[in-house]
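Quick illustration, no need to memorize.
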Amino acid sequence: MAARTILFTGFPGFIGARLIPLLLDQDREATVVALVEPRMVEKATAVAAELGTGDRLTIQPGDITAPNLGLSEADWRRLADDTVAVHHLAAVYDLAVPLSIAERVNVEGTQNVIDFCRACSRLERHNYVSTAYVAGLRGGTVHEADLWAGQSFKNHYESTKFAAEVLVRASMDEIPTTIYRPGIVVGDSRTGVTQKFDGPYYLLRTIQAAVGRHSPIVQPGAMTAPFNVVPVDFVIDAIVTGAGDPDFAGETLHLVDPEPITASNLYGQLCRAYAGKAPAFKLPWGMVDQSLRLSVMRHLLGGTPRESLVYLNHQVRYDTSRATELLGRHGVRCPPATAYVGPMVAFFREHEDDPAFAPLKK
């Protein structure tokens, strides 16, 4: 029987470490080759051992930013011959990433993965993880079929993920592809487990800092925009489901809450769950935006970077019609934020002083 290989990029990231065992359970004849940059091989090998997948998960040193994914010609050819599915998750997610790095990893890296897909004679699916934020600064409702609408972008992360999705879209006539666009990913909806306290967790840092100083809790801006958080278990369930259903080929799916609550609503719930009280008052967004340029104000708000808070006041809604329909056939639905605020705060409380969960230093 011919080998069935799944090429995976983005291991040992938080999503990848949880996704790979489920993919192996889904396809009992498959093995996964995780393409890992050399500096991460030791960590990836340790995580793979913890997963207990044995010889069904192989760590392959490589580099998505290099021609032929940094592989020898023989390794490239053998892998292309055996690969039946590609899961491309590797990307730079830092909102403050320099343009040159973002372009090399997010755009050139994606083009190299597409080139590999073209070389695979038995490829059944390219599963590409994009982001809802390819919509950039668009307002109103963004549909899953939308991509280019003349939008500008909040940062280089968004603009380069947009450029990468343009490349993926252009390949879909010849490569069976599913594009997944998650919102802002937080911890598991049942356990609260996450990898780093960044993104929305800066809100909890703000609350924690106020409680620690015995001062009123400040709300940074009106925060009337829908807040597009999504728990990691839903994202993983959606990708596994899509990978196993041929009907998902050719689709672009928003993996976000179909009925998002406002950022202020979520912030209020986080305040009550962590501190037992609501925010005392709101600061005008313009004042917050300017003050966050000063390190002393970032410290007062728990180390919150300006790049993250911009998302709390951006009026946009991501339509989920196709995701809701296709995933609904399998009983997969995004849980409401109210259902996982408790686990999210409980896990944060348990690990808030653990340096292992601190965001990477800029």
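The longest helix spans residues 99-119.
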